[in-house]
């Protein structure tokens, strides 16, 4: 009888045990596309900790700039994490072991980017926060070698650059970079800064790093509302500048992969979005040129206001507000970031492959 009971208990234990995540930790760097609360307690207009943001998220409004999941929430689940990666601003020392999210809305590669929106944590600031987190990990794990071994197995995603165009280069009322640099010069300047900060991350143990390219900012409801004659045609002047940056980013990945033990990869968000825009119906979407929540032309002249009533058919919209994708779009992008559908989605590997290296 005892043997039978033990067998039943053993079977029950087997059923309840969950598979471990594919990697021990996941660290996130970026802007409002992936911020999940770091801007909630700083003096900034770039915040989303109010309804209807989070209307479809179990935790309600958390600071995520969407109706529900962000791309990194999707990636974390696909990597096998039980919980979402917490924001650095409220993370415990113990949570650092499995990774934190350093992203900050309105942040850019350049220090001044987004300053008209108030406080934000630029990419260099996010890297500094990561460096202090690593020092804490050294204390937790006992020595630098243990910390280095741990970090070498983690996934890092870095998505910067959107605001350097949206809230800098193409905003002449606040910034003069548009008149000081040609698109090629500006891309080169951004890549030089980006490279320096990524090298600092590498020096602090980051080895498996996915660089998320910049998407089609010229197709966002805000830019369509301001600059598109018919409200449908994407703004080519913006998108062509972004394509230059993205092509430089592919080259940067190749360059960084010459570092010992480095596994950098490029995620072609621009191409993934292009694929969705060309055949939205095949991806379950109907509305690609307007925000589900917003004001004015394309629901994009003013972004989603506190307590505004959003559209009911959110699953059919590409954009949630004037700038940010819906959960439906984030799920599509997150899935293809993790597991490439087309060879052009990534260079050289997707995140699922990166996790195995």
TrEMBL record:
<dbReference type="InterPro" id="IPR035669">
    <property type="entry name" value="SGNH_plant_lipase-like"/>
</dbReference>
<comment type="similarity">
    <text>Belongs to the 'GDSL' lipolytic enzyme family.</text>
</comment>
<keyword id="KW-0732">Signal</keyword>
<dbReference type="GO" id="GO:0016788">
    <property type="term" value="F:hydrolase activity, acting on ester bonds"/>
</dbReference>
<keyword id="KW-0378">Hydrolase</keyword>
<feature type="signal peptide">
    <location>
        <begin position="1"/>
        <end position="19"/>
    </location>
</feature>
<protein>
    <submittedName>
        <fullName>GDSL esterase/lipase</fullName>
    </submittedName>
</protein>
<dbReference type="GO" id="GO:0005576">
    <property type="term" value="C:extracellular region"/>
</dbReference>
<keyword id="KW-0442">Lipid degradation</keyword>
<dbReference type="InterPro" id="IPR036514">
    <property type="entry name" value="SGNH_hydro_sf"/>
</dbReference>
<dbReference type="InterPro" id="IPR001087">
    <property type="entry name" value="GDSL"/>
</dbReference>
<keyword id="KW-0443">Lipid metabolism</keyword>
<dbReference type="Pfam" id="PF00657">
    <property type="entry name" value="Lipase_GDSL"/>
</dbReference>
<dbReference type="GO" id="GO:0016042">
    <property type="term" value="P:lipid catabolic process"/>
</dbReference>
<dbReference type="InterPro" id="IPR051238">
    <property type="entry name" value="GDSL_esterase/lipase"/>
</dbReference>
<keyword id="KW-0964">Secreted</keyword>
């Amino acid at each position: 009888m005892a043997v039978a009971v033990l067998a039943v208990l053993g079977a029950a234990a087997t059923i309840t045990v969950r598979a471990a995540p594919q990697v021990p930790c996941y660290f996130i760097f970026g802007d409002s596309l992936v911020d999940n609360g770091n801007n909630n307690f700083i003096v900034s207009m770039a915040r989303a900790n109010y309804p209807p943001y989070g209307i479809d998220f179990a935790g309600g409004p958390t600071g995520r700039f969407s109706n529900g999941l962000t791309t990194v929430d999707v990636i974390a689940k696909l990597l096998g994490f039980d919980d979402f990666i917490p924001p650095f601003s409220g993370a415990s020392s113990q949570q650092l072991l499995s990774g934190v999210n350093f992203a900050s809305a309105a942040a850019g590669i350049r220090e001044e980017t987004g300053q008209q929106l108030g406080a934000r944590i630029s990419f260099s600031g996010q890297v500094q926060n990561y460096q202090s987190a690593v020092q804490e990990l050294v204390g937790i794990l006992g020595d630098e070698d243990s910390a280095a071994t741990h970090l070498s197995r983690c996934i890092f995603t870095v998505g910067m650059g959107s605001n350097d165009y949206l809230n800098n280069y193409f905003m002449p009322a606040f910034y003069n970079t548009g008149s000081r640099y040609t698109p090629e010069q500006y891309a080169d300047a951004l890549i030089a800064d980006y490279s320096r900060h990524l090298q600092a991350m590498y020096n602090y143990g980051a080895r498996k790093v996915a660089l998320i390219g910049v998407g089609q900012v010229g197709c966002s409801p805000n830019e369509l509302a301001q600059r598109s004659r018919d409200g449908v045609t994407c703004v080519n002047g913006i998108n062509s500048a972004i394509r230059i940056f993205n092509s430089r980013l592919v080259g940067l990945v190749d360059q960084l992969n010459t570092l010992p033990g480095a596994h950098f990869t490029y995620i072609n968000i621009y191409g993934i979005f292009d694929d969705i825009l060309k055949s939205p119906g095949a991806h379950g979407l109907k509305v690609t040129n307007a925000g589900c929540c917003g004001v004015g032309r394309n629901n994009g002249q003013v972004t989603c206001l506190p307590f505004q009533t959003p559209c009911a058919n959110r699953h059919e919209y590409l954009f949630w507000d004037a700038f940010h994708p819906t959960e439906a779009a984030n799920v599509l992008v997150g899935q293809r970031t993790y597991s490439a559908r087309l060879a052009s989605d990534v260079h050289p590997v997707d995140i699922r492959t990166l996790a195995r290296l």
